[in-house]
Design brief:
Radius of gyration of chain B: 23 Å
Strand order of the largest sheet of chain B: 9-8-10-11
Number of domains of chain A: 2
CATH architecture of the largest domain in chain B: 3-Layer(aba) Sandwich
CATH class of the largest domain in chain B: Alpha Beta
Largest interface: A-B, 78 and 96 residues
Bound molecules: iron/sulfur cluster
Radius of gyration of chain A: 21 Å
Strand content of chain B: 5-15%
Number of strands of chain B: 11
Strand content of chain A: under 5%
CATH topology of the largest domain in chain B: Rossmann fold
Number of helices of chain B: 19
CATH superfamily of the largest domain in chain A: Alpha-helical ferredoxin
CATH architecture of the largest domain in chain A: Orthogonal Bundle
CATH topology of the largest domain in chain A: Fumarate Reductase Iron-sulfur Protein, Chain B, domain 2
Shape of chain B: globular
Order of helices and strands of chain A: HHHHHHHHHHHHH
Structural class of chain B: alpha/beta
Number of strands of chain A: 0
Oligomer: heterodimer
CATH class of the largest domain in chain A: Mainly Alpha
Amino acid sequence: MPQQYTFGKATASYPDVPYEEKERLFREVKEDPRYEDFLYGCYECGICVSACPSARFYDYSPRVIAQTMAREDVDRFYEILAEDIWNCAQCFSCVRCPRQNNPGGLVTLIREVAVRNGIQETRDVLQGYTRVIYKVMLKGNQVSPDMLQPDFFPDWGPWVASFRGNMEIWRQAIPVDTLRGVTDAAWRTADNTLRELYTIWFETGNLDIIEEVDEGLYELLLDVMEEELEDWE
Amino acid sequence: MTATGFIPIEDILQKKRRPVHRPPDQAHAHDIREELFELEAKGEIIVHRVPEPYVEVETRFGRKKKIPIEHTWHHKSCGQCGHIPGYTSSIFWLHRQFGLDYTDPIDQTSCTGWNYYASGTSNAVAQMAVMSRNFAAAYEEGYYPLIHCGTSFGHYKEVREQLIHHKDLRDQTRRVLEKLGKPLVIPEEIVHYSEWIHVMRHRIAERQVVDMSHIKACVHPACHYHKIVAEDAIYDKEIYGGQRTATITGLLQALGIEVADYSTWFDCCGFGFRHVLVQRDFTRSFAVMRKIEVMIDEAQPDVTITHDTGCVTTLDKSQFAAKAHERRVGVPVLSDAQIAALAMGAHPFRVVQLHWHSTDWRPLMEKLGIDWEYYWNEFQEDLEAIRRGEALMTWEKADGVAIQPN
Ligand code: SF4
Ligand code: SF4
């Protein structure tokens, strides 16, 4: 029997995942209303690859993303969903594509599906990242001064330690009113604004998405937001 | 497509018989505002008009874009405010120096795009609702959004297009906003602060007090500024022949700085959104090997200037570890707002907040003739006064020209 062909592979990876499941996830990506804006076909010209930072440092190719989706290669798609998507830097250098494809945009959509379906590889990748999700959902800012800790940024050198020793006073010494003294968020945000943000997370199903990647984080966020919204009402 | 999955050769030949001839001056110049106004006429959305006074500039394919000068609602950047606050305060300081009307809201969240591009833990409607909530807040306050962050700028441009092109997403977003008691408002133009700096560059140069004509800079154009919805970035035929965005370079030329080219100008900085937070081996390697070292080898710049949050952080902070590996590093990194503020004499620490940058900026200050130790001592006295509870760092202290003309 001839071997089944997938890009660059003799046999399909993830044989334990049923083909029907891979196909279901593939369809979920294709059903996103933005999908049609991101893929028009592919010349295999490699212009996206030449511009792609991740292609230089990883075994990764935006051309393969576009090709796999266009050819509806469901097995290769599953490998992309489980592995490749996390290599993408989301810089969108690949939109140089002469067919006006957006391989980075396809990656965004595939990531969403991977997250929504709680794919184990995705949960693993996001494990060290959940404190950022916590911050952005509660504070409306991805990063804050108090996240700059020497343990997390040892490669940024002694500056981080010196910053930690001075954080409180340096934050006091900023002339911008909305920043001055704020260390647990990027700026001071009105309580009502945050409540509106929490309402958005509830109404759009964004909170349910978090449950798929980290139940503990979900419970934590739910508690804080529900309490805050109850007080508001 | 046929049952075999191939396009019949006849169809391809038929297509080739109808070549498209499009003169370059009439190349793709789609104006999304036409669709915005149509939606407004149908009562679906409110279009927030750019207030007077504004300046019109050319975009990539020739569409004229309106850049407001004042009455702006400053959509701050979490990465700037959280980790490079001198970036934010320089933008405000410039506005204050020109006496322009602006507002710095607390009814603002970030676009949340950094997290979205890092983790995918959101969805289209949530992203649209976050954007539209901010835009509605600006509209209600009567000020026009000026976006500080490159990612917010790119993300909002793309989300705005999606909102316009997909009625179902638009309807869902409107329903969420109704729950908040807010209308669905979309600005006529999505404007990045570096576009404001670009149109203000000659006014900035008129008030320059620090000579920069002996300085050489490399420019890193931010990916999410000029690659996402690429047609909506500023281009100028006089700058790189209109082949690259004119923002940053236009300012540096106006300030008399020599802009030095390098071959990897189109490459990203290596930020990667998720990578910079939890997988920095990629970020460091890319920032150093594809950007900083290439700049040093090909251009020997005194400074690198960029116009986005992630780029400043990545290019600045990635250099320390590379030094231990004996890589060629040591180029300070500033935003266009910071170099403009310094040129106009802003205090290097009260306003530009250089102490938040880690690659050594002292040689640059010395080359500019700025006695940084003097201003550092002054700033230390400010800190002492704050510690003693005697004074706050306010605009009263930070406004005005600190650096004496050289
Ligand atoms: S968005 Fe992703 S695929 Fe596209 S160029 Fe950047 S890293 Fe490569
Ligand atoms: S640039 Fe576009 S057409 Fe060329 S290989 Fe990449 S996706 Fe395909």
